[in-house]
């Protein structure tokens, strides 16, 4: 993510968990490479075998759920912009990580019609943003099951917060802009809404004829129109976290093609932003290919970008299709959101406190892009920020421990990027750039934590780096050079 304030004032970008060793790796869908990671085992309530209401992130205690690991979401959705009504028929394939008599999904609002588990009607209750499901028969630990939920209503985006702004399923004049970091997936589909549980996604999105519904991944067949409505079928076959899923829809102008290296590339803009369509498509292709030389092979099956007519105040790195909310993206923000495809999307954080692993990397990518294009070097950008006086708020906020009430603090971005530059200076360019590639390759489609990054940096460089990381990531005050 990158914020619009920065975009508008500086021509600059924004986006958005830490350490549970008990996470089990499980094959997501039988595909050879993609893997999903199981959530934290839930405590059993006095023998009642209830899945926990949260996945175990102390900063966001009700986000996600315990007791199961999702492998696939099938989202069959319809949306009518005239009534702002969303109808959902969602099937979730999951594996029980404990025996379960009851488990939760995250869902905000809506009238839930029917819930079934393994094809049999289940009972359910609502409380806050929790949907508690009691299957007709208990689920055995290790067993796979499918839960299906039908529901309808007017989506209510999250209008938070000092720190997070408006996010989730956001109605627009002609459709909806759907950007969900950190926990807005629950505003449009029932889910295990926390990045610690990745899954593949299939979408069948039905909207009024003449509108386009965009989702992650690729179209798997031609859109089908019947009775004045068109259904778009998309599939993202690589594991994805819930906050990156989208069904942004409305009037869009499209440009399709491939990057020079052959990656399918789809740009889509609201007609109001027609003049930026070609530039978005060209620059996205160029930067996707360039990052593949710096960070290693592009991790997904397509790239692209979407500009919608909604002043969200930020851009988000939605997997395969970053979303730019109500502005013409410049090269710097496109470089930021595409760098997230490696760091943030393919590699996902397990706890929000580790957000610098996403934002520090994507911000540093802006500096690398500037350097590549003959603009300011990463060193000179580092020097400019380092010149900020000791009283600057950035020095009081250690970026290695992002705070839930101030998640997207500038320090997580800028001081996070400075941490990487300090590392580069300490280990040298050869070791640093080898580390960036190895980090992306070793954890492709998986989860990462800060201690894992520190350990890999020490291993690849052969240097003791704990003092450097401690000063830059975890201590208040301006680090010494
Ligand atoms: Zn970002």
TrEMBL record:
Provide the Peptidase M1 membrane alanine aminopeptidase domain boundaries. 331-472
Region Disordered: list its residue ranges.
31-55
| GO molecular function terms listed in the Swiss-Prot or TrEMBL record | aminopeptidase activity
The secretion signal range is: 1-22
Keywords, ordered alphabetically: Aminopeptidase, Hydrolase, Metal-binding, Metalloprotease, Protease, Signal, Zinc
Query: Is the Metal-binding keyword given for this protein?
Result: yes
The family database entries (InterPro entries) matched by this protein are listed as:
Aminopeptidase_N-like_N, Aminopeptidase_N-like_N_sf, Peptidase_M1, Peptidase_M1_aminopeptidases, Peptidase_M1_dom, Peptidase_M4/M1_CTD_sf
One Pfam family name is Peptidase_M1
Q: Which reactions fall under this protein's catalytic activity?
A: Release of an N-terminal amino acid, Xaa-|-Yaa- from a peptide, amide or arylamide. Xaa is preferably Ala, but may be most amino acids including Pro (slow action). When a terminal hydrophobic residue is followed by a prolyl residue, the two may be released as an intact Xaa-Pro dipeptide
Q: Which residues form the Aminopeptidase N-like N-terminal domain?
A: 72-244
> TM spans, by residue?
none
EC code: 3.4.11.2
Q: So which cofactors does this thing need?
A: Zn(2+)
Q: What family does this chain come from, according to its entry?
A: Belongs to the peptidase M1 family.
This protein is called Aminopeptidase N
Which organism is this entry from? Nonomuraea roseola
Ranked from the top, the taxonomy reads:
Bacteria, Bacillati, Actinomycetota, Actinomycetes, Streptosporangiales
